[in-house]
Amino acid sequence: MAFVTENMSKAIDFTDIKQLLDDRVLLYNRLDFIDSDPIQIPRRFSRKEDIEIAGFLTATISWGQRKSIINNANRLMDIMDNAPYDFLIENSFSSNGNADMERLKRFVHRTFNGNDCLFFLESLKNIYTHHGGLETVFTDGYRSTFTAFGALQHFRNVFLSLPHDTHVRKHLSDVSANSSAKRLNMFLRWMIREDENEVDFGLWKDIPTSALMLPLDVHTGDVARAYGLLNRKLNDWKAVEEITAVLRSFDAVDPIKYDFALFGIGVFEGKETIGQ
Asked: In CA terms, which of 8, 193, 223, 232 is 20 to 30 Å from 87?
């Protein structure tokens, strides 16, 4: 299997690397993967809206140590009475004095603070009450360009349409500014990817799995570069486009299944596997 990008002068044969990654997809795309992954938070729920909201909020704070991410996401679900959709609809996030609001004001995950949290919940409520929900907003954006880029850009515009402090913007990636949008791409993988192993949910049917982009982070980026799958040195949107194009040459229908392989090698195997 050969692949050529704009930055390559000749075709590169990725046959052996594809075989290795296919093997690692089988190893890591399994239910026991959930035990140490933030996707376990939305997996607690069965109602579609609860899964979406829990998944989005968990993805939003998914940076740093995984144990801390999972603990804080569980804490946030507890504050929301473990019924995220009902909690959104039944509460006003601009009011003071309510005990739950006071607890939300004290919520912190790294630089994501209580005021950020309150705005995110207020904006999610607006999306569900006036825009048809998260699936509708992302799908409308996708249909504007039939790309994940269009979906992410439209979502950001809708999400930030309410008055807000500029601090909240740092927690919502801007692909038009060349952000890799790792956490949002991860959330889309959770919601959209059809997964016979039932790790990802596959809830949203109007955006194809083939349109998904790799949730590029330091682990997937380092492994991709070590295998010659990615030339760009920065983990930005251009790098996401480059690596996803290669992964689509491996599997045009489900390219982002390789997220499991690249991440798994980077986190659980490291240099020994890369050096083979």
From this structure: 193
